[in-house]
Amino acid sequence: MPALVVMGVSGCGKSSLGEAVARELGWTLIEGDDFHPPANKTKMATGQPLVDADRIGWLDRLGREVQAHPDGAVLTCSALKRSYRERLRAAAPGLRFAFLDLDIATAQARVSGRNAHFFSPTLVSSQFEALEPPSGEPGVLTLDATLPLHTLVAAAATHALHGPTATKEAT
C-alpha cells in the first residue's frame, strides 16, 4: 500500500505539499484536519492545545482512511510525536513520512497570516513543545519547509515512490 504522510507543525506547508504530491502521483489526498472531531476543532479554535487522548481516535481514523486507499494516498497530519507516527505505521506498514522542518518564527508568521482556519496562532509554540523530530526513524525524509514548493514536491514524490535510498534530505 503506497502512502506518504506529510508531517510537521502547523504552518509548515503540509496542505500545500500534500495536495501537490497527491496530484503529481495521482494518489488520493487525505487532509488530516478534515477528520478532527468537532470537539478537537473547538479546543484548537479557542487556543487550547490537544492532548494525547484527544488525538487517539483521530489517528485511528486517519489510519483507516489510508488503508481504504490501497492504490496510493497522501495524508497530511502533524504526527508530532513518535507514538503518533507508530500508531499510523501500525495501520499502514511501510508508511513513509516527509517531515517539513520549520523554525518557530516562520511557523508563527505563516499561521498568523492564514484566513478561515480553526487553528489558533496562539498554539504554535505548543506544537514545537510537543514535537519529537523523527530523526532516525524508518521511512522519513526531512525537508526544509522554506524551499520552493516544486523542489519539495520532487523530493517528496521520489521518496513516496522509491523510499529513502532514492532521496537525500533537502535542506
Automatic annotation (TrEMBL):
The catalysed reaction is: D-gluconate + ATP = 6-phospho-D-gluconate + ADP + H(+)
List its EC numbers. 2.7.1.12
Q: Which Pfam families match?
A: AAA_33
Broadest EC class? Answer: transferase
| Keyword terms of this UniProt record | ATP-binding, Kinase, Nucleotide-binding, Transferase
Q: Supply the SUPFAM superfamilies for this chain.
A: P-loop containing nucleoside triphosphate hydrolases (SSF52540)
Entry's Gene Ontology cellular component terms = cytoplasm
What is a single molecular function from GO for this protein?
Answer: gluconokinase activity
Q: Pathway, per UniProt? A: Carbohydrate acid metabolism
GO biological process assignments: carbohydrate metabolic process
Family the UniProt entry places it in: Belongs to the gluconokinase GntK/GntV family.
Query: What's the protein called, per UniProt?
Result: Gluconokinase
Q: What species was this sequence derived from? A: Sphaerotilus mobilis
